[in-house]
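Q: Here's a chain of 210 amino acids. Please give me its 3D structure as tokens.
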Amino acid sequence: MTLDTNWVKGWISAAADSIGEHKQELNTLDREIGDGDHGENMDRGMRASVAALEKLPDDATPNAALRSIAMTLISTVGGASGPLYGTAFLKAADPVGDAAAIDEATLVAVLAAARDGIVSRGKAETGDKTMIDAWTPAVDAARSAQEAGASASDILAAAADAAEKGAEATEPLVARKGRASYLGERSAGHRDPGAQSTALLLRAATGAAG
């Protein structure tokens, strides 16, 4: 499938479905080390993003679609996740420019820009027990796949696989950023909800690519 505006719309629609399905799971993860509302917040933001994308003109570019998602998430998702995910989508739009479709090299740049946007906003590093622990391995895997000549769908699959492993790997970590860091050693043994929602988001992107 061509990674055009319809792909972006399909991605966010699939992400909304997935987040909705796993909403209570995300709430539970967040309740263990945070406020307990990550699932509710992400569900609201994804559904609002789907609605916002439906209002775009037929000739909207992928850049415009990504920026629409960014603005919607910033305005509708509570807590830290709204600004973090909003910044991710805002920065992800930059490498796309005015292109009607996203090629393999640009796809990697999109993922890297999203990750870097989150880092710039949240100041987290790998190992801090945040969504960066899912995003960074996803970017690395995507880049490796692209350099090996993989298709866009295979690049996304590699990113999603790595994000899922990264999210799982947050369980034994002690949080060094965010509300979970207030728990100190007690944060160990729990999966980071932001890393888990990142894995769901990237898996949805893979499904939408066919």
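Q: Can you summarize the key feature?
A: Residues 104-122 form the longest helix (19 residues).
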